[in-house]
Amino acid sequence: MNPNSMSFTPGQWKMDAPGFTPFVPFTPSSSSSPAPATTTTTTTTTTYAAVPTTWDSEPAPRSSAAAATTTASWGAPVGEAPQQKPPTESVFTVEDDDIEEDDELVEEVKKLEIVPQQEYVDEDKREHLNVIFIGHVDAGKSTISGQVMLSTGQVDARTLEKYEREAKENNRESWFLAYIMDTNEEERAKGKTVEVGRAHFETDKKRYTILDAPGHKNYVPNMIGGAAQSDVAILVISARRGEFETGFEKGGQSREHVRLVKTIGVKYLIIVINKMDDPTVEWEKSRYDECVDKLTPFLKSTGYNVKKDVIFIPVSGLTGANIMKQAPEGKCPWYEGLPLLPTLDALTPIERKADAPLRIPVVDSFKDRGLTVIMGKVEAGTVTVGQNIFLMPGKIPLEVTAINTEISTMQRAKPGENIKLSVRGIEEGAVSSGFVLSDANLVPCVTEFECILAVQELSKEKTLMTAGYEAVLHLHTAVEECVISELVSQIDPKTNKDIKKKADIHKE
Predict the structure, then answer these.
(1) Can you say how many angstroms the Cα of residue 63 is from the centroid of all Cα atoms in its chain?
(2) Under 8 Å between Cβ of 445 and 22
(3) CB 389 within 8 Å of CB 439
(4) Tell me, what DSSP letter sits at residue 174?
(5) Model confidence over 408-461: pLDDT tens digits?
(6) Contact at 8 Å (CB) between 203 and 346?
(7) In Å, how far from its chain's centre is CA 89?
(8) Percent of the chain with pLDDT over 90
(9) Which range (9-23, 112-126, 130-144, 320-334) has the least confidence?
(10) Could you tell me if 453 and 40 are in contact, meaning their C-beta atoms sit under 8 angstroms apart?
(11) Would you call 119 helix, strand, or coil by DSSP?
């Protein structure tokens, strides 16, 4: 049978797109007045092809696995689990008269029994977390990230020796662990992280993706892009005399990074007091307490519940003390908590909305074996192989042909997973970062929307915020220029109630 001779049954759905925080921001028009708002609640009728429901004839099996997969996927409507065909003794049979030349082959084929594929097989039940390392430049973020990769067996001895040699050649002997994350030659030469580094490791309890954010003020937009994908933030503070004060005072990135991850919605914040082995500190409890006491009031002012959502850990990223295992005996007897990695494993699982409408903000895309591959994190909903989805804006229908992570292949991806979707129906050049993949419950597309802004800091060039204020909007993976058309009201941060209607100017 020719696989292309299958017939398709068109399906029609009429849906009311509910109000939803828009993932695709607007682009200001060239005129002085903002573009007119579109209705965020719409009624749309969409017609597209469902998955195969009828066949001209029984498909000839290509292999045992292929036959089983085909049997399990017949008659599955869009968005529903495949309905399994009742299992038989074998998907196909062979008679002796069909093959007379090789009796042994006949006997082997007769023994073949096909087991239909299970409805869905979750490859790994462990929770997946995106963990971002934030903090001021030179606090030791890349070094701790590299130490985590080394401690979990992700870096072999030969590769580590190579990094040690390269670091010595650049007169940066103590930075060899940072080379595990900073793979760019420019980053290694300058000793500064520019792009958000990405790596993967796992424990017996959970799976993790490390996001190593840049600490320099010039690269804050890159840091925001990484924080938007994160579930847990690890703030790295240097305990070295003078470095903590520089990073935490006004102008340092420690404060700004904490505000940003809280505003973005990162719930858990782990604060590692790094460089406790420095000669100016020598694991002194008094220095650790000093850092904690200065940080606590600021964390409360940003909205974090210090007792429930914040954890402090003294560590040495260079030696690995309190990263995976407790510090050597006698070094830190006053700390009774868990090391960093066991602390991550002990976090309460994050509540995910697996039954919500599908939402996958696009991070990047590329071409592979003739198919377009779209990278992103599943923020809500569930996506399965064979499902028909849409790329917004544009309402472009796509078919999911494969779902992959960095280390495995899966049939279904739930919220929290970083995935690569192989899709049919679009070319790579038509996909941009900031677009959103959704199911039939489409993401509303608007040119104007009302939101709540937490004003953290205004630029020195623009110290007043009023109607017409131009800014750059970061919304998940989307980055767009925008214009504030109206300041509706000013809100009390403690009560969330309006304290001034029709506010014209917000001073810094």
Answers:
(1) 36
(2) yes
(3) yes
(4) G
(5) 888 999 999 999 999 998 888 889 888 999 999 898 888 888 888 877 777 778
(6) no
(7) 44
(8) 24
(9) 9-23
(10) no
(11) coil
